Amino acid sequence: MNNSPSSGLPAQKNQLPEIGWSATDVFESLEVMRARDVRWREGRAFSLAYNAGPDALAVAEEAYRRFSGENALSTDAFPSLKQIQAEVVAMAGVWLGATPNSAGFMTSGGTESILMAVKAARDRLLAERQIRQPNMVLPTSAHAAFAKAGAYFGVEVRRVAVGSDWRADVSAMRSCVDENTVLIVGSAPQYPQGVVDDIVGIAKIASDTKINCHVDACMGGVTLAYLERLGETIAPWNLQVPGVSSISVDLHKFGYTSKGASVIMYASKHLRSYQGFVTADWLGGMYGSSGVLGTKSGGSMASAWAVMHFLGDDGYLRLTRQAREATLQLASIIRDSPDLVLRAEPESTLLCFGAQDPTALNVFAVADELSKCGWYVDRQTPPDSLHCTVNAIHHDKIDWFAKDLRNSVEKVLSQRSTGNVGAYGTVE
Questions:
Q1: Sign of the CA dihedral with 102 first, then 107, 113, and 117 last
Q2: CATH (one of 2.60.40.3450, 3.40.640.10, 3.30.450.40, 1.20.1420.30) for 61-307
Q3: Residue by residue, what is the 3-state secondary structure of 284-317?
Q4: Degrees, nearest 5: CA angle 102-105-110
Q5: Where are the alpha helices (DSSP H) in 2-109?
Q6: 184 by DSSP, 3-state: which?
Q7: Within 10 Å of residue 425's Cβ, how many Cβ atoms?
Q8: E strand or H helix at 323, and its extent?
Q9: CATH architecture assignment, domain 312-414
Q10: Chain centroid to CA 235: how far?
Q11: pTM above 0.70, yes or no
Q12: Nearest Cα to Cα of residue 177 among 230, 232, 121, 138
């Protein structure tokens, strides 16, 4: 009996079909499943997905396809991946202010990069000092992945309230550092409101106390480098700042590569040496890995290498200009709205806004209405806000989005609608 979808007798949910489906049926079913997904290729997503246009996307996907089966667990078997990683890390290092002493690895994303920064800091300070209970000090704006790392690696998380400008309170952070602190954190920019922390001040604490300082530039590592090239004044944020021991950048964000590509760069090979894991304590011989993952597809690595070469320096400069201009256009629209307010002036390509009068306008209901129009924006709290990660695909979409935003606001105001806060990430 044929139990493919076209037979009218589909397999029960969560059960293997008795007879394998045709490739056509498989792909048709997948298309049905994603029918309600946000249309990010059309520029409808202000979160989670990044698009430099159909040509770059085609290069990213083809390179991923060609190397999807290669396994970066062993570069002895796949020396191409060793070369790819070395060249990608070197190219990203230019954006991150790397020096000849710097060294890094590719990871699967910002979360893994952050996990590794915490693990490396913990292991370094445990080796050098008699620490009872390691802790890290970070602003409340720092990414949730730091809390995840703390839970995974047994590092106490000391969150410090940000200032009125949403930036890290350097003085308050210094007061939380003690003899058990292994890491202090800044962001360039921080995700929730899109402002750049005082990296110089934070890194000075690390220098004074001889601990690690990680800069989370997963969102800004590409953009900030090119905004400086475009003539914008950017506060010091990268490995050129004394005291910064590591920095991360996600290539699958504003590097426009396929998902699963990030770089963590250390100021030295010595600092990087605390990231890896090596053991021979089993019957399989020597085992070593640079990050959380063991088996790691070469697809995302090859995609990063391919897109970075395809776009080149001039391409990234153009895409950064497009994304920044779109961000400023959207910021102007929010600024001119009688019902909305910017949480902060955007310093890169992240923008956050809320209601002028939260008792009259529920911004999460606005997000619901935007969703009905096909748009996806992040929901944040506290305070109740909507967040847009603006990238190059949005350069000609802002007027369209603004019209739907105005209509959504008017509808929510007239109907006194309410909405749910939602979640940035889900466990399902």
A1: negative
A2: 3.40.640.10
A3: CCCEEECCCCCCCECHHHHHHHHHHHHHHHHHHH
A4: 110
A5: 23-33, 54-67, 79-95
A6: strand
A7: 9
A8: helix 299-336
A9: Alpha-Beta Complex (3.90)
A10: 21
A11: yes
A12: 138
Residues in the chain: 428
How far is it, in rounded angstroms, from Cα 211 to Cα 123?
11
Position 57, amino acid: L
Q: Count other Cβ atoms within 10 Å, centred on residue 278.
A: 8
For 321, the enclosing helix (H) or strand (E) is helix 299-336
What residue spans define the domains of the chain? Answer: 61-307, 312-414
DSSP letters of 101-161? T-EEEEESSHHHHHHHHHHHHHHHHHHHS--SS-EEEEETTS-THHHHHHHHHT-EEEEE-
CB atoms within 10 A of CB 117: 31
pLDDT tens sequence for the chain (428 residues): 345 555 444 555 678 999 999 999 999 999 999 999 999 999 999 999 999 999 999 999 999 999 999 999 999 999 999 999 999 999 999 999 999 999 999 999 999 999 999 999 999 999 999 888 999 999 999 999 999 999 999 999 999 999 999 999 999 999 999 999 999 999 999 999 999 999 999 999 999 999 999 999 999 999 999 999 999 999 999 999 999 999 999 999 999 999 999 999 999 999 999 999 999 999 999 999 999 999 999 999 999 999 999 999 999 999 999 999 999 999 999 999 999 999 999 999 999 999 999 999 999 999 999 999 999 999 999 999 999 999 999 999 999 999 999 999 999 999 999 888 877 666 66
For 289-320, letters b (16+ CB in 10 Å) and e give bbbbeeebbbbbbbbbbbbbebbeeebbbbbb
Q: Which two tokens stand for residue 334?
A: 């929010």
